[in-house]
Amino acid sequence: MLLENLKIDPTDLPQLEARDFTPLEKDYLYFRITAWSLFYLMLSGVGAMLSLFGQVLFTFWLYPLLSLWVLMFIFERIGFKYRGYCIRSLDVSFRRGWLFHRLTTVPLNRVQHCEFNQGPLGRLFDLATVKVYTAGGNSSDLDIRGLRKEDAIKVRDHIMELSSRHA
Description:
Blueprint: E1 22-23, H1 26-52, H2 58-79, E2 84-87, E3 91-96, E4 102-107, E5 111-117, H3 120-125, E6 127-134, E7 142-148, H4 149-166
Antiparallel strand pairs: 1-2, 2-3, 3-4, 5-6, 6-7
Helix pairs in contact: 1-2
């Protein structure tokens, strides 16, 4: 048997184009802003309690916390348009990131199972997450967040159907 290790020209490789990605639901932006706002509200409660007992000055924590909340709001608004998912015949991909780009692709022949998750805040916004697992490890390899509940169930079922064809 002759083993050949041929060089592949990078221009011949298939590419995921920006137009191939399906954007997430607009409510997912509001979901993320609400989640972050609740986090900052809890932090401000801790700061208020410390100020009440004289441990920390009121202005020492309030202005930095408000500044962080404004920065978070701006980053979420700008970065939201860079989030999306793509399901093709051989793989599923999820991209995110405005400053730090991240593209995760999982080949369908490696998918072990998919999971549908919806937390309390997700139920409030009717949003869910599809988690894709491959062999090895106990955490998901790909999370598609920000889907409507009905769409998430359809995506999960479709990924499992496609992966069973490749098994």
